[in-house]
What we know:
two-stranded antiparallel sheet, 2 domains
Amino acid sequence: MEMFTYEKALEQVKQEINQALTRSPRMIREYLTHLTLSQGKMIRAVSVLTAALDQDGYCSYEAIRVAAAIEIIHLSSLVHDDIIDNADLRRGHETLQKKYGKRTAVICGDYLLSLALKMITNLEHKNKYLEIQIPDYISKLCLGELNQHINNHNLDLSMFDYIKIIGGKTAALFEASFFAGAVITGESQKNCKKYAKIGYYIGMIFQLMDDCMDFETTVETMKKPVQSDYEQGVITLPLIYTFFQKPEFARKAKVEGISRNEINQAVEDAKGLGYTRSIVTRYYKKAEKLIQSLSLIAEKEDKMLSILNKSARMIA
Amino acid sequence: MEMFTYEKALEQVKQEINQALTRSPRMIREYLTHLTLSQGKMIRAVSVLTAALDQDGYCSYEAIRVAAAIEIIHLSSLVHDDIIDNADLRRGHETLQKKYGKRTAVICGDYLLSLALKMITNLEHKNKYLEIQIPDYISKLCLGELNQHINNHNLDLSMFDYIKIIGGKTAALFEASFFAGAVITGESQKNCKKYAKIGYYIGMIFQLMDDCMDFETTVETMKKPVQSDYEQGVITLPLIYTFFQKPEFARKAKVEGISRNEINQAVEDAKGLGYTRSIVTRYYKKAEKLIQSLSLIAEKEDKMLSILNKSARMIA
């Protein structure tokens, strides 16, 4: 069985994704090719590959396929997200739903999902696919999305419910990524569960830091987002905590409405970002401890910690 | 292993579907329960169960699960279809997208798909799942939908392209149903391919007869559809053939537009329905021959022929 260094594997993932998108039937190719424009840092693929590294620091072609498939599942969820959010831009590029219409975007998202599932079910060791339980994670992802949608503009959203939402919306696919990597490389069931938990924590950190950034970029006006989370009806932890600390501000939000400046001031006064970061720290320490408990080779441990640090925006 | 008579199995499929829908997490249950209202005759589930009957006329619990899952995949595609078609009603009931909005419907369709995949991947004999290749069929379904959407209002659509569209849009899931049933009951690879072909032919017949009915119900004004296929931009075989026979009528359609009455008259003059039925007959004979070549027990052969006849609307 051919084995790949991490760097070569990551390169191969990019190729697999591009091939899957550009070798699709002609009629759908144009739409899918458009998506390759707005590809990000592939942190989910990086997670699969890292979790799949063996004792010599190599990973198998199966890990590459699964990494590509999970990125495509992520892509599929973004395509449907953009319909739900009526978004025009993603990472500076026109969204599929804006460019080709919602109808085409619904089908393209469905097609991408089936494409990813096809890639995984065609693994050489087919049984691995069943252990990875991708459909379970897709369900969790959907339920997270739905839960967020239902709670759009809900100013009474509790911290508990919020944690549940992002646990599905964001953390589920990170969990799937680490879990899949561990299953592929043949880790024990006990260890696979540890990897899954690490993935969950990293996903939570990733989302909570994103939530903080939404306030920071507004304050610093470094990158001016078209609409803040709040303006889109998405109530995140820094503001939930602020409402909890300042019930009179929550009442004002319901009765009179609150401006972007008022929100930023209130979040600052209530230390909403500090509180959110303290939750991040809690997840960070749990993840760190779990990673260290796995007795990994130095390269793998470093890479796992590096993903953790990236999710916490501690390194670029 | 507990085995079920056909009747008991079909009853069980209904229960499995209802359980899957109503035992989903609370937040999505309301939407899914709404769907149980507009359940049809479950011809896909009937196909799976029939194809899965063994030499004694029994089928396994696995066949029941797969039958329920394929019906749920069909349901998922209907939910997304209704978004694409902006449909208000389906089988007399308000659609999900009309009642709860397109956003909710996008997510519910995704969730249903993941639910169906979960049901199949949890089969006792997991390897069966991989043989059934459900993701391949979902891809075909998506491509058929997309192809139809791209060719909406395309008056130059060729017969060849039309056959390709309905081969994905409708026939793919019928093919999957018969193929899955045969795989589950342990048929040889050669026979499984025969079952798949039978399913494909039946799906084609089902759709072509539906296309004919769209004209007939208009003419007879028995059930008046809100909008005919043509008014929705869907060009079907009877009209494609009519355009082919009457190029001047095709030109008129492009330049001046054509009314419902003119279409019906032209289709009648050109014998568009007769031509479509001749194609149906061709598929019918192929399917009949294949069914007879399988040397089935009388009960199973009768049931297979009965599905074929139902698809051709030869029996109620």
